[in-house]
Amino acid sequence: MTKRTLLFFVTGLCVCIMVYGILSSTLLARIMHMPCRIVNDVQQQLQMVRNITPEPLLSDQGVNRSQRSDGVDLVGTSEKVLSNRTGIRPSDADTVFNSREEMPCVSDLREELLCALKKNVPFSTITRKQASRDVRNVVLPEESLEKLAHFNSCAVVSSSHALRLHTYGQEIDSHDIVLRFNCAPTDQFEQFVGSRTDIRMINTLVPLRHCQEEFWSRNSTMFKHGILVVGNMDGINFGPRGSLDIRPHIRQAFDNLVKYSRTFPKRAKPFIQRPRFGQDIMAELARFCVTTGLCDRPRLRPSSGMLGIVMMLHLCDWVRVYELVPSNKDDSKLMYYFDEKTMWTAHDMHSYSQERVYVRTLSLTPEKGIEHTGVVLLKGFSQTQCD
């Protein structure tokens, strides 16, 4: 009886040790692979999102990647596009190909996010044909912007006061295309932000509340050269039978665009982003926050900066964003590099915090690099391999 009891005890002890070993190794593996496991769970959810077909648009959304900026004549709109001068920089190549700190699953997550953004937020601009029976269609170009040209390297320059703490001017100007926002000037700030402006994206408060003098001046260079793009959250839509449906709070802004085209007939006609472009970006930000848990669901509309970044991801192979995701250089509360008075307030009008988390996740630039420089390198959709 004693021997049998001892045998049962030893056998049970061996079984317990084996089970403990299996559980321990499994738990250790789970702990070691927790980041990738979480990322893979997020990837699966994003894959499900990508498989959901978005609402059909009323216009073609293809990007003509074969049509480059070299010598392109933007027919019917008198836009001028500069020649393609630069490719991806050696420093960018180091970031893209030699980042050993990044786990493969993080790279996969970035690709999933870019593919979801590409599918769910296509880009185009409203053409004259789409508003063929609207008398106001005189303001619209004949072709959509993404069909006229595609670029290699692009700079998206924020209006952040932190740009005063860097000297990025020459670097910014070396890109194929430079995008600026609203009333951001270059005169007297060239060493910080560069001197070129090839695309200027404005919101509907220009010129209603901001830079009226520059907008209507024949001598001001702020709007005289380059391409003008109007951000469109949800205010300008397609109406029935080839008309435009413009919401009441946007009508005065649209009337100003018509007046602008008639006042300056030799200037490039303004491009207006397609209906619901801003709303689709807001929905994609919400999906990102809910799926990853990295941020709260946005309840505010996306900023002009976010609309500009997504637009340039469609138009460019490589996009460098300057101080939209802030560095740690500026400890002031000042908003703009050209204004030493306006301060940040506690009441944001846009989803800045969610946008910064999102762009950081899409970035090829290591976190430490962003903190030091405030510069983010992004792959354009043309460089992203999607199913």
TrEMBL record:
The keyword RNA-binding does not apply. Its EC number is 2.4.3.1. InterPro entries: Glyco_trans_29 (IPR001675), GT29-like_sf (IPR038578). GO terms for molecular function: beta-galactoside alpha-2,6-sialyltransferase activity. It holds the Pfam family Glyco_transf_29. Keywords: Disulfide bond, Glycoprotein, Glycosyltransferase, Golgi apparatus, Membrane, Signal-anchor, Transferase, Transmembrane, Transmembrane helix. GO terms for cellular component: Golgi cisterna membrane. It comes from the Eukaryota. The keyword Signal does not apply. It catalyses: a beta-D-galactoside + CMP-N-acetyl-beta-neuraminate = an N-acetyl-alpha-neuraminyl-(2->6)-beta-D-galactosyl derivative + CMP + H(+). It is an enzyme of class 2 (transferase). GO terms for biological process: sialylation. It is a single-pass type II membrane protein. It is found in: Golgi apparatus, Golgi stack membrane. Belongs to the glycosyltransferase 29 family. PANTHER family: BETA-GALACTOSIDE ALPHA-2,6-SIALYLTRANSFERASE. This is beta-galactoside alpha-(2,6)-sialyltransferase.
